[in-house]
Each structure stands twice: as structure tokens, then as C-alpha cells.
Specification:
Largest sheet: 8 strands, mixed
Oligomer: single chain
CATH class of the largest domain: Alpha Beta
Structural class: alpha/beta
CATH architecture of the largest domain: 3-Layer(aba) Sandwich
Strand content: 25-35%
CATH superfamily of the largest domain: Vaccinia Virus protein VP39
Radius of gyration: 21 Å
Strand order of the largest sheet: 1-16-17-15-14-11-12-13
Number of domains: 2
Length: 376
């Protein structure tokens, strides 16, 4: 594990990792946020912190003995060749091995980052933990992939719950794994999974929390912090496929979601319809542009959920939230440093940060998810 860039806390006991992550949150809130007095709860861990990930992204390259695939060494793009990973769903390892065997047998050229030449870049899997549905995504620089019909047949023969095989085209050099173009080679262009009593469509490009067991714990805590009574207007900023907003929809008057990726917004609308939720609407665009525009039109929220990417929120968005004066903000973060920075801004502009709940979404890694309760 010392070579792979993922599970960097395996030298600790699991209990020690939970304590470590709580202290990371406290340190960031104190040092960066200037908020030493926020009550930080103990990190909520998993009973069985293995095989929990519903998404895997395996880079593909050439090693000394042929095609290799695995994970990047920490802070590098050196591929550590691995046969299995103890935090991935077992079907991810099986799907990857089938694809690798096909590449070898059919002499399919793989991508070379140094030269920018080659065809196959990544193997990506998405799995519905509660439905058992499996999506396999082949990331290539162009199409077609040689003998792709044979590859699809191999996957169908060996994966019982295979629901989707996608060819994703990414011709750009750089660190972004998935391109914008998808070609469905088999099945549907999405899989399904559940959170609570809701079912969600998950397209290949959309964000969906990687640990479904802990996601439900996280969302229940967020719902508790929101203190909804059925009368409030709720905004879900960075809504993805609508998970948080739809999870809370039956507890409020209306939900408005904003998300950058059009594919995710279309999925959010379908997810609302299939769960018979008719009090939710969704907007496509950058949150830092859409939210100020809606506010200028006179639209307001009583309660706001914000779940930004790792970089946190743009200050222009935070400024709009402060001016809008929602009674409560529930901030969900996957990166304590930007979280602390954003909480500092909000706390110096009229909001009280009451408490923070770390949730161990990524056992054995240094990552920690945090949900925070704020009010005016």
C-alpha cells in the first residue's frame, strides 16, 4: 500500500483513522477558519470498511511485461499494477480483468501519456450496490475499438448483472479521465441504485457518492441539520443527479437544484419523475452564475444545501448566499481546507456555525466528508 496513492492510512487501526480524521477537521476549522469552538462530533465509521466503493477508475498503460492497469502511485502518474483492490467492489476487479484480457488477445493499442499516442486510456466501472447493476466504461482516444462486439460478449458472458457498456471518447491530453462523448455499446446509458426509499438513474458522467452505505448516513444527518417542517423552499447547489434535493423533497414545500453537467440535470429530472416527486425543478449552469441570476430575479431559499467540488465555493456564490439570508445552510464538504475557508467567510457575514459531523466515506484513505450546520 505504500506505493499506491489511495489507502494511505493502513498503518493505523481503523479506530485510529477515525480519530485522525476528526482531528484533521478540527485543525482546519481552527487554523484556517478561525473557528476553534465549533463542536466536532466523532467521525462516523463503517462496520465493515472494505469493498465499499461503487466506482473504480483504472488507468491503462504498458509495463515491462505488457499491458498493465491499476492505480497511480501517490502524486505521480506511475501506474501500480494490481490484480485486486480491497476497497473496490469485487465485480470491478472482474470487469477490469476481462477488458485487459481482450486488449492483450486482440493487440489493442493502449495510451501512452508521454507521447499522447495509443487508444485505450482507462477502464471505469460503476456499480449499483443495492440493485446489483453494473456499468463498464472503456475510455479511448477515438473510436472504434477493435473487436468491441467480442468484448461486449465477453462481459455479458461473465457478468450476470451487466446493464451497460459505454465507450467514452477522450482525445484530450491531461488529467481528466472522462471525455464528453459517450457511445452506448450495450444496454442502457445508465444504471440504477437506491438511497433510502428513492431510486436513482446514474449516467456515466454524473457525480454520485462513491460509498452508498455512508451516503445514506451523511444525507440523514444533513436532513436533520436542515430542520425542515414542510413549509420551506430548499435549494440544492451542486445537485448532481438530484440526490440530496430529492432525498429532502417530501419534507419541504419545493426544491430547486443547480448543476453544471447537462447529463446530470436530465437524470435529476427523470429521477424526480420516477420517484413521483413533483415539487422539484432543476437548472443547468455554473452555480456561481446561476444562483446570483436567480436571486436578482427575486427568487430566494429558506434552506440551502451546498455540496461543492473539492475546491469549495466561489466567493461570489457565498456573497449571494449571505445577501439572500436563508435561515439555514447545510454545507457538505469533501475537503476540510476549503470548507474552513468558506465557513470563515460565512461566519464573519452573519452566520453561526453550530456543529460539524465527519463521516468516513473513504475508509483507509486520508479523505473525510463533513456536514456542517449553519444558521443566522
Amino acid at each position: 500500500y505504500k506505493r499506491c496513492g489511495g489507502c494511505s492510512l493502513q498503518h493505523m487501526t481503523y479506530t485510529e483513522t477515525l480519530r485522525f480524521k476528526k482531528n484533521v477537521v478540527i485543525d482546519n476549522l481552527t487554523r484556517i477558519g478561525g473557528l476553534p469552538n465549533i463542536f466536532v462530533h466523532d467521525t462516523v465509521g463503517m462496520e465493515a470498511p472494505y469493498r465499499y466503493r461503487n466506482k473504480a477508475q483504472y488507468p491503462v498503460g504498458i509495463g515491462k511485461t505488457g499491458i498493465i492497469s491499476g492505480f497511480y502511485a501517490q502524486r505521480t502518474h506511475e501506474i501500480i499494477n494490481t490484480d485486486k483492490c480491497e476497497i473496490q467492489h469485487p465485480m470491478s476487479d472482474i470487469a477490469r480483468s476481462i477488458v485487459l484480457e481482450h486488449l492483450e488477445q486482440n493487440n489493442v493499442p493502449v495510451y501512452d501519456e508521454a507521447t499522447g499516442k495509443g487508444l485505450i486510456r482507462h477502464i471505469v466501472t460503476r456499480i449499483g450496490f443495492y440493485t446489483g447493476q453494473i456499468m463498464v466504461i472503456i475510455v479511448a482516444t477515438s473510436c472504434p475499438v477493435p473487436e468491441s462486439d467480442k468484448l461486449v460478449q465477453k462481459l455479458k458472458d461473465n457478468i450476470q448483472n451487466l446493464k451497460s457498456v459505454i465507450l467514452n471518447i477522450n482525445p484530450e491530453r491531461g488529467n481528466v479521465v472522462l471525455g464528453n462523448k459517450n457511445i452506448t455499446l450495450y444496454g442502457k446509458d445508465y444504471i440504477e441504485d437506491r438511497i433510502g426509499d428513492l431510486i436513482f438513474e446514474i449516467p456515466p458522467l454524473s457525480f454520485y457518492q462513491a460509498n452508498p452505505v455512508q451516503t445514506e448516513i451523511l444525507y440523514k444527518k444533513a436532513l436533520e441539520y436542515a430542520q425542515l417542517n414542510g413549509s420551506q423552499t430548499v435549494w440544492d447547489i451542486y445537485c448532481g443527479i438530484g440526490t440530496i434535493g430529492l432525498f429532502t423533497a417530501k419534507h419541504c414545500r419545493s426544491v430547486l437544484g443547480v448543476e453544471l453537467i447537462p447529463e446530470a440535470i436530465e437524470a435529476a429530472k427523470r429521477n424526480a419523475a420516477r420517484n413521483n416527486i413533483n415539487n422539484a425543478e432543476f437548472y443547468t449552469g455554473k452555480a456561481e452564475k446561476v444562483i446570483p441570476e436567480l436571486y436578482r430575479k427575486g427568487m430566494k431559499a429558506d434552506v440551502i444545501f451546498v455540496d461543492p467540488p473539492r475546491k469549495g465555493c466561489d466567493e461570489s456564490l457565498l456573497r449571494t448566499l449571505v445577501n439572500m439570508e436563508p435561515s439555514r445552510i447545510v454545507y457538505i464538504s469533501c475537503n476540510p481546507s476549503p470548507l474552513a475557508r468558506d465557513l470563515k467567510y460565512l461566519s464573519t457575514n452573519g452566520y453561526i456555525v453550530h456543529e460539524a459531523q465527519p463521516v468516513d466515506m473513504f475508509p483507509w484513505s486520508y479523505h473525510v466528508e463533513v456536514v456542517c450546520k449553519l444558521s443566522r
